[in-house]
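Researcher: I need the complex structure. Ligand is calcium ion. Inputs:
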Amino acid sequence: MQQPELSFIEEIARSAGNILRENYGKQIEVQHKSTADLVTAADKASEKFLIETILTKFPKHAINAEESGSHSGEANHQWFIDPLDGTINFAHGVPFFSVSVGYAYDGQLELGVIYDPLLDECFTAQRGKGAWLNKHRIQVSKTGKLINCLLVTGFRHYLRDTPQNNFNNFARFSRITQGVRRLGSAALDLAYVAAGRLDGFWEVALHQWDVAAGALLVQEAGGIVTRMYGEPDFMAEPVSILAANPHIYPTMLAILEQEQDKQG
Ligand code: IPD
Ligand code: CA
Ligand code: CA
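Model: Output:
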C-alpha cells in the first residue's frame, strides 16, 4: 500500500497547529487524567482532525495516538501522533508547545514533522534525505565540550517519588554545562537538538508519540539517538531516550551510566 509523502504530513501538522493556535490563551476547560497529566479540548480537537485526515487518505494504516490510543490497521504502516505536546504549558499560557506526527514503515521511522504554531516553525525529516526547519536544512551542533553545551530534559510527574526521578542527572549535568533547560515539550526539545539550538536531550518514561518525529529529526540532522543507557531500540515502551550531537553523546552516556550505578 501507498506510503505518505512528507508534504502531506507537513500540511496536516500545520492545520492541527492552527487548531491549537486558535484555542491558545482562551478560557479553556482542563481535564485531569491524573494530578499533573492534563488534557484540553484542543488536544482532542487536534487529534480528531489528524486521525480523520490520515484515515481518509490511508484507511488501512495503524495509528498510535496519545488521547485515543491504538487504532489497529496494517502493522507495516504505523503512525505516531502527539496532537499537543506541552499541554501543561498550553494550559498555563506558556508559549512552548507543538504538534508531533511520525510515520514508520516496516518498523523503521521514515517521516517526521514537529510544528510550533506560535513561531510558525515547522521541523521536518525524511529518512536518508535530511532534516529541515521551514525548508532550510538543519544540523545538530558541533560543540564538543560539555562546559560549552546547553542541554534539555524533562520530568515525569509520577516518577517524582521514585529512584527514576531524574533529579540526580539534572543536578550533575547542571554543574558541568552552561545549563539544563526544562522546557516542557519533548518533541520540541528534540527538534531544537536537531536544529543545533540545544546540544543534547534525555528523558525517562516517555511514549512513542513524544519522540517518533523528533528522534528521526535528530538522526537526520547528524545526531545520535539511543535509549538512555545506550541500547538501540529507543522506541520500546516505556521510552527512555538520549539524543545528542555525536561529539558529546559518549560523555553524556557515560555520565548517565555513572548516575544509574550510584542508585544501586
Ligand atoms: C509531555 C511533554 C513534556 C515531558 C512529559 C510529556 P504532553 O507531553 O513532552 O516535555 O516532560 O514527560 O508527558 O503530556 O504535554 O503531551
Ligand atoms: Ca507528549
Ligand atoms: Ca500530548
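Model: Summary of the prediction. The chain has seven helices and 15 strands.
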